[in-house]
Specification:
single chain; mainly beta; STM4215-like; 2 domains; 3 helices
Length: about 270
């Protein structure tokens, strides 16, 4: 089972969709008269907040021209957990005709539910900047916001993925003298409920079906075997053709002499 290569980019799609949700937050700064003096798009990047704080602390003397631009938003994956509450029937399958040809059928077992925990960080130097960003985020999560993702392109599956806001934490990293940089950080914990898909298998049109039946008595060999065979008529018919069926029944008096490969009695 393991060792068959496949990669549907399911986790990658969730991360991209999550980041895109926060990729167009605007920040406006006004003077005392209420006139807009600056307008900017808040930068967004994937990465841990410890990396940002390290860049700030490395320039304790404030001698560098630019250490890091504030405000900014970042996010990172925290953990991945199986969700038993959304478990689907594992023996059911998705099925889809392969491409434009009706001669092959793609199939795939039901996906496995997982929860992806993501932390979003809002870092700012001024309190008003961070509050302005937070107020543009929180009203959309009550407590979830649903994204539609092209979940499984090979099977033509689109799925709504809820992004749930679990908590909001506040931190003020101001320490030391007046020359030390101040970092206001809001940490938002999210959970994305998505699915992981297994490999896609492809098979041709089934043109022959056969069923073998026999009696199996205790301490004795089976005494009779019956084979029931169904084939299309004509045998070269395609899936789009209008065709009938040929039905054949074969009996074998001694199943011990029956060859299941050739379908003949070896005796």
């Amino acid at each position: 089972m393991l060792g068959q290569q496949f990669y549907h980019e399911s986790i990658r799609k969730v991360i991209i969709a999550f980041g895109t949700t926060f990729n167009n937050i605007q920040l406006v700064r006004k003077d005392n008269d209420g006139n807009i003096k600056q307008s900017m798009k808040v930068p967004l990047a994937y990465g841990p907040r410890q990396k940002w704080l390290t860049r700030l602390n490395e320039d304790a003397s404030l001698s560098k021209t630019v250490a890091i631009t504030l405000p900014r938003i970042g996010f990172e994956i925290q953990n991945l957990q199986y969700d038993p509450n959304r478990k689907l029937n594992r023996v059911q399958k998705f099925k889809k005709v392969k491409g434009a040809s009706a001669n092959r059928l793609d199939s795939q077992y039901m996906p496995v539910p997982y929860n992806l925990n993501i932390q979003l960080y809002v870092m700012a130097k001024e309190s008003d900047d961070s509050l302005q960003i937070i107020e543009q985020i929180l009203p959309y999560f009550q407590p979830d916001y649903t994204l539609t993702i092209n979940d499984m392109a090979d099977m033509g599956i689109k799925r709504d993925v809820p992004i749930i806001l679990n908590s909001v934490a506040y931190e003020d990293n101001y320490q030391g003298d007046f020359e030390t940089r101040r970092a206001l950080i809001y940490t938002l914990d999210f959970t994305a409920k998505f699915y992981l898909y297994g490999p896609v298998t492809s098979q041709a049109v089934i043109k022959t079906v056969q069923v073998d039946q026999y009696t199996d008595l205790k301490d004795t060999a089976p005494k009779r075997e019956q084979r029931y065979t169904v084939t299309p008529n004509p045998t070269n018919a395609d899936a789009d053709d209008d065709f009938g069926f040929n039905e054949t029944t074969s009996f074998f008096e001694d199943a011990k002499n029956f060859d299941p490969v050739t379908g003949t009695d070896k005796s």
